[in-house]
Amino acid sequence: MEKVLSKKAFPQWVKKLESYTMYLPRKDGDFWNYEVIKNPEIIDLDYLNTVLSPKKIIFPQREVLLEFSTSNEEELKINEVLPEEAQSVIFGVRPCDAKALTLTDKVFGGDFKDPYYWKRRNSTALVGLACNTPPSPNCFCLSVDGSPHSKEGLDILITDLGDKYHAESFTKKGDDLLNLAKALFKNPTAKEKKDLEKIQAESKKKIQRQIKDTKKIPPKLKDMFDSPFWDEESLSCIRCGICTYLCPTCHCFDINDEVTSSSPIKGERVRTWDNCQFPDFTMHSSGHNPRPDKAARLRQRILHKFQYFVELYKNYQCTGCGRCISKCPVGIDIIEVLEKARDYGS
Amino acid sequence: MVNLEELKKEASQILKEGKVKYIIGFQRGSNGLLPVPAFIKNPKDVEKLVWDPTCVYNLTLFLQDEKRKKTKEKEPDERPVGIVVKGCDSRAINVLLQEEFIKRDDVYVLGVSCENTGVLDEKKLAKKLKGKKAKKVEFGANDDFVITTEDGNIKIAAQEVLAERCLECKAHFPVIYDVLIGEKTKRNVENPFKSLEKIESLPPEERWKFWKEQIEKCIRCYACRSVCPMCYCDECVADTINFVVTPDTSAEEKAQKIKWLEKSPVSSENFVYHFVRAIHLAGRCIDCGECERVCPLDIPVRFLNKKLEKEAKELFDYDVGFDPDKPSLVSSFKDDDPEDFIR
Amino acid sequence: MAEEFEPKIVAFLCKWCSSAGSDLAGVSRMQYPPNVIPITVMCSGSVSPLYIFSAFNKGADGVLVSGCHPGDCHYIKGNFYARRRIALVKKLLEYVGLEPERFQMSWISAAEGVKYTKVIKDFVQELKPLGPQKKLRRTQ
Amino acid sequence: MDHNTYIPKLAKIIEIKEEVGGARPIKTFRTQFLSTNNFSFHSGQCAMLSVFGKGESIISISSSPLLKDYLQFSILKMGRVTSSLHEMQVGDIIGIRGPYGNSFPVEDWKGKNIIFIGGGIGLAPIWSVLNTALSIKKDYGDLMLIYGARTSKDLVFQEELEELRKRMPVHLSIDVEEPDWKEFVGFVPQNVTDKKPSPKNAIAITCGPPIMIKFVIKALEGLGFKDEQIYTTVENKMKCGIGKCGRCNIGVHYVCKDGPVYSWAEFKKLPQEY
Fold it and tell me: I need a labelling partner for B253 at 20 to 30 A (CA). Which of A252, B239, B309, D64 fits?
């Protein structure tokens, strides 16, 4: 379904969707973050990319898996805690972040479907915003099979046409959202369709960063496991978790028991994000650590994204959002690391 | 004015003479305005060294890696590491010496004076430039920065785009060095704790609201810990395995280790982490401001450290990082330390 | 009618003075409120700030650190170190907006059973109007 | 999405046997599910055990899948969870989820001779497949066990091993000499070389500390075993057990899901990061 909505009517549309929990990027100091919309009057879609991607809504950093307790009779009880199935809409999802969710879908799908993830995922509609101008100077989606107006993973893609939005729905979830405010939407004219094409073509040209010959990287990395390259590249790494926590595709997690009472025992089993850059991530109880240093951990991060994931799911585990580059405390640049690896020894 | 060529010459010479095993400095990166750390072994590569207002990093952080590496080597190279430091960074060296984390012979300090200015706050600059992209930032002749943008050069008074900590810096020049590049320019800082006033003057409940909002944002990426040259503990209460495990560590030891805080990034747990970080840096934080710069969520963590720096000064007349031979803040006391708060 | 709020106080008492002082109060059958969870430590100087943060994290409404009077420390200087450290912790907690009344330090000797009961009584009285400490407490 | 694999089933400990004392104690636990048992598994698979309030730990199942009465786990006291398991009593409740991972291709091995090679607690995962092979012994050729530990006190399943001698050759070893020890003294790989099992129509399964596995494989290669004839099981830190939490991977393989059982032919192709 392809429609056009005047910008002024945007808040009205949002108002019509009141039965949904709605998220929109909101400015907080110098950065943007997704928040629940409280007042639809003061919303707009003019924003840079958020610090954390919508991953944090679908796969929250903290999630209770189950509760456990012993009653007075010392009987142990466990209680499954699934997220509430609240119908939600996330507005303004950048195409790279939407694509990232199609990648975490692969991880949380497969033989064991992750019920916590899918409860949220299935009840959430993603309304994307095409990047007419790149929201970050480090955007490089074109190099990893993405595009600033890709529809992958989205239910609706909105494109800013100046005084109006072009909105295209690709799924039933998307159609439902448009149908709730039918009167506000018009069919696009031939000129508007042409404008859209023009904007899309131009948006690609505005992306400043790229990886050349990305395809050559996975086979090259396969032979670089034992290379001293990783020692050199990781010299300035400080072992923080920014690159992976901010990554829209990173999905690693930890499971811990949080006890609120020790006698009688009462508590929750909680899943939290975890991070392959932390030393204790892979450390065995014995103290043995298969990835003992930052070189091994940087290698894991790069290989996971550009070799292992490619072998497993035929996709890069990177959508080119540029967060890890922009926020790395010491300027480690994944584009540079990959290009150096591609050319290493040749 | 600091002469970069002088720095390069010195660096090249000590490498050629074999005086140092390598030099940690700044070089241009592949992305953005900020440089990246350089680890230079070959005298030829000293050409890569840069010095400009974007050299924000406190490179003394990398002395931790050096030390860890050295303890693993059977026959370590005992030569010092050359390291480029600013005034604040040099105070970190003093603290590391004071705590005997390093020895004086472990480092060859290439001190660079910030003279009348300091380093850049990228965010302040971005606001000033209103969307224009800076390509290069250099020290100007009149305590200003020269910014190269797409449409030519702009001069901005350094004061307007300096990092907050530079505005409150007590010594713009290295206080310990083997070579000093630039001059020991004295500048009077009226109130080195001025930036704290805004929060301090809030009523307690407002202050609580402010900090709760900030600390709640924390995603526990631990970048503030990782970037800190003083956070060199092998064990940290914040980690799931919060101590060094060897094959000899017994199961009991591991099982009985207290889990001081949960991994969940909720207010109560985040506060424990940030309190521990702050208190552990009391009398040790040299205010390089790196913790705050790297925070992806813009949590003003520096204000926690700065507050304790202020209290150390006011209650105990303690200055951090000026004298490596002085006992540290919390391993010393005076008979007349204030005790009006004690019953 | 709602029951009156009874604050929970975690008290770190040094073994040589304050803990002995509390024992004296006990064996002398002095009356004082039962709100204290005493934890005997070897010296007030051995109280890590982490213990204090942890006590608040685990739900203490108030925390007390108590040691020997200056000059009386069994380890000569332990309480002097404590004095400095606790001052900093107190400033930090107040800075983020915790009520100053919630964290206290005292000097109580082995002979000061009476002082111990007074410190506790006063502490409880000051905590009551504040209500439960929810700011730093782990949500349950 | 009918089944939530993160929710463990509750099980009661019905028997605890102290296998090894001292500083590195091992206990064997037998457990029964509180509700009906529809837990079916294959030899080599693991289960995620819960001590509620302490957390979870992945443990290989050491009983044979042919035994339906109980599940058996032999557990070395190592960290937080295993320490509290060691404190538990008969009647206490734990959680079990799984089974996870792949298993030994026992069907493919029918008619072959099998050599089981274990070190220390590494006998536990082997014990399941050994007992399966033993209970349908007619389907297999000659069976042999080579097993060693640091000292004679560190050997697990001591009573069972004595019983086992009646049915198959059992070669034990300890690392350093002890009075009254009549069998091999030295490391397990040396014992393998010493006992010279024939590679003809044979499969060798080895499990133990990483360093032992490495040298056992060398010893087997020295005896003429081909890569496809050697099997091993690997362990890594795990949290989810289902290939999602991201920490146990060796290259593209998640040990919890794609392992823990590997032929040396497969395993040697993976990056050596374990």
Answer: A252
Quote the DSSP letter at residue B282.
T
B272: nearest CB among C53, C85, C98: C53
Q: What's the CATH class of domain D9-100? A: mainly beta
Chains D and C: 3 or more CB pairs within 8 Å of each other: no
Q: Do B219 and A245 touch (CB under 8 A)?
A: yes
Cβ(A277)–Cβ(A297) below 8 Å = yes
Chain D residue with Cα closest to A290: D274
Are β-strands D113-119 and D202-207 bridged in parallel, bridged antiparallel, or unpaired?
Answer: parallel
Number of domains in chain A: 2
Task: Count up the domains in chain C and report the number.
Answer: 1
Would the CB atoms of B276 and C53 count as touching at under 8 Å?
A: yes
Q: Which residues of chain C have pLDDT under 70?
A: 1-2, 140
Backbone angles phi, psi at B278, to 5 degrees: -65, -45
Report CA C41 to chain centroid distance, whole Å: 12
In this structure, is residue C2 part of a structural domain? no
Residues 6+ apart with CB under 8 A from D219: D189, D190, D192, D193
Q: Which domain holds residue C42?
A: 9-130
CATH topology for the D106-233 domain: Rossmann fold (3.40.50)
Q: What Å distances lie between residue B60 and A332, B176, B184, B229, CA to CA? A: 18, 13, 20, 6
Distance between CA atoms of residues D148 and D171, nearest Å: 8
In terms of residue numbers, what domain contains A41? 2-52+82-205
A238: closest CA of chain B, how far (Å): 6
- CA-to-CA distance for A243 and D163, rounded, in angstroms? 56
**Which residues lie closer than 8 Å to B12 by C-beta, 6 or more apart?**
B43, B46
Hey, is the C-beta of A83 within 8 angstroms of any chain D C-beta? Answer: no
Q: Residue A271 half-sphere exposure, CB side, CA atoms within 13 Å?
A: 22
Residue D181 in 3-state DSSP?
coil
Domain residue ranges of chain D, discontinuous segments joined by +: 9-100, 106-233
| Beta carbons of B278 and C92 less than 8 Å apart | yes
Residue ending a domain, choose from A160, A180, A205:
A205
Considering the domain boundaries, does residue C3 fall inside one?
A: no
Residue A178 to residue A4: CA distance in whole angstroms: 10
B251 touches D at CB < 8 Å: yes
SS3 A339: helix
For residue range B57-109, list pLDDT tens digits in order. Answer: 999 999 999 999 998 899 999 999 999 999 999 999 999 999 999 999 999 99
Token pair for B72:
């693993």
D177-223 per-position pLDDT tens digit: 999 999 999 999 999 999 999 999 999 999 998 889 999 999 999 99
What pLDDT, in 10s, does the model give residues B294-325?
999 999 999 999 999 999 999 999 999 999 99
Q: What's at B272, amino acid-wise?
A: V
- Report, in angstroms and rounded to the nearest whole number, the Rg of chain A calculated over CA atoms: 22
For B164-174, the pLDDT digits (tens) are: 999 999 889 99
Angle among Cα D76, D77, D81 to the nearest 5 degrees reads 115
